[in-house]
Amino acid sequence: MDMLMHWIGVISDWLWGPPLIILLVFGGLYLTVKLGFFQFKYVSYIFSQTFGKMFKKHEGGEGTVSPFQALTAAIACTVGAGNIVGVPAAIMFGGPGAIFWMWVIALVGMGAKFTEVVLAVKYREKNEEGEFVGGPQYYINKGLNKRWLAVWFALGLMIEVIPSIMVQANSVAASAAATFNINPSVSGILALVVVGLIVIGGIKRIGKFTEKYVPLMAFLYIGTAFLVIMLNFRQIPSVIGLIFTHAFRPMAPVGGFAGAVIASTIRWGFARGVYSNESGLGTAPIAHASAITDHPVRQGLWSVAEVFVDTIVICSATAFAVLVSGVWTSPGAMDNASGLTAIAFSNALGNVGGMIVTISLLLFVISTIVVLIYYGEKQAEFLLGLKFSRFMKYIYVASIFIGAIGGAKIIWQFLDITLAAIVIPNMIAILLLSSEVIELKNEFFTSTKYYLKDIGKSAERSS
């Protein structure tokens, strides 16, 4: 068994090294070029149609939840423990320059995220309960006409959700025990009940939950990080210099930082960005597919906003808080990379700062579990129908308690391998179907019903 676990670890590390990072980075770059760098060309329009309309009533179209609810559901899954503990790890192993490459992969990844969301809306279906469902399993099956590849994706994600929930639940229990001295069994039961009450109600209840919960948890964390940064504002210019300078040249050891070569800087920056915003993974399209929208491209615009919030805003807030506070150069920093955010907050704000990090971590993880369960049950529904998906929903909810008390640790070793199993079929699909997305994009941006109408040029075009 030990030998099996060893080789699983070796394979996992290899897959999530150059192979998948290259696939996701160059796949995203290819799609960005093919889409005509739309995320830069139409940046003001994208923000006006997403953040600018967050609190306005949606305009026409079919769907189950509002575009904003679909966005917050997707963000609820992407914004997790990695935003708090993963970013400082990237800094310690790749140096401050890793943040530059994190930004690069976020901007490039917008092309892949946009492509998969547009395809998800185009190929979505109504299930037996009248709800819109979609995602890679549907556009692979209907768009590529490759049922076996769709089953590969659906089975991979359905299985991956179990160890993923366990890992998230375990981090909730560990944080609650460390900060509030709550027994893991108690926190496991509490998490199970809270999550169960939300997910049993389906995507409509999840949407209503995330549209209120996600902005609250994001503002709590970002606001506190901003306060930490402002208390160290004199360091901001030098930190910006470090990020851009050492994105292209090695950095020597400084205090608790052991130094980094360029290859490590790029690798950790790309990995942090990919893991965080999930561009190309095929998970977020499952949430976006349920949105009320009059055109697939319009919902695709929200996916660009999603990457911006997750990586450019939240991950950057963590990075700057860690860098300006100087905790990354403190003795022993390399040995406690995952705890640097809490240390930075505590140094600036006392015990309150550390508690806010813990509470944010708890909130982030709960939201991630809620949406993970929805993603998993949609795969079960695709494979074996609605009744089977309801059965899997209860399995997922039960796995919260198992993960909280530390059970089934062996299955955690499979987490990255099952994640790789969904990336490969999804990236194959979005690359092969990208021409359809180009057609939809061109249709949207040249039509008097959509883009031209939005910017007030429909009358001019029709005359």
TrEMBL record:
<protein>
    <submittedName>
        <fullName>Alanine or glycine:cation symporter, AGCS family</fullName>
    </submittedName>
</protein>
<keyword id="KW-0813">Transport</keyword>
<feature type="transmembrane region" description="Helical">
    <location>
        <begin position="348"/>
        <end position="374"/>
    </location>
</feature>
<feature type="transmembrane region" description="Helical">
    <location>
        <begin position="99"/>
        <end position="121"/>
    </location>
</feature>
<comment type="similarity">
    <text>Belongs to the alanine or glycine:cation symporter (AGCS) (TC 2.A.25) family.</text>
</comment>
<feature type="transmembrane region" description="Helical">
    <location>
        <begin position="148"/>
        <end position="169"/>
    </location>
</feature>
<keyword id="KW-1133">Transmembrane helix</keyword>
<feature type="transmembrane region" description="Helical">
    <location>
        <begin position="418"/>
        <end position="438"/>
    </location>
</feature>
<feature type="transmembrane region" description="Helical">
    <location>
        <begin position="181"/>
        <end position="201"/>
    </location>
</feature>
<feature type="transmembrane region" description="Helical">
    <location>
        <begin position="20"/>
        <end position="47"/>
    </location>
</feature>
<keyword id="KW-0769">Symport</keyword>
<keyword id="KW-0472">Membrane</keyword>
<feature type="transmembrane region" description="Helical">
    <location>
        <begin position="394"/>
        <end position="412"/>
    </location>
</feature>
<keyword id="KW-1003">Cell membrane</keyword>
<feature type="transmembrane region" description="Helical">
    <location>
        <begin position="68"/>
        <end position="93"/>
    </location>
</feature>
<keyword id="KW-0812">Transmembrane</keyword>
<feature type="transmembrane region" description="Helical">
    <location>
        <begin position="307"/>
        <end position="328"/>
    </location>
</feature>
<feature type="transmembrane region" description="Helical">
    <location>
        <begin position="251"/>
        <end position="270"/>
    </location>
</feature>
<feature type="transmembrane region" description="Helical">
    <location>
        <begin position="213"/>
        <end position="231"/>
    </location>
</feature>
<dbReference type="GO" id="GO:0005283">
    <property type="term" value="F:amino acid:sodium symporter activity"/>
</dbReference>
<dbReference type="InterPro" id="IPR001463">
    <property type="entry name" value="Na/Ala_symport"/>
</dbReference>
<dbReference type="GO" id="GO:0005886">
    <property type="term" value="C:plasma membrane"/>
</dbReference>
<dbReference type="Pfam" id="PF01235">
    <property type="entry name" value="Na_Ala_symp"/>
</dbReference>
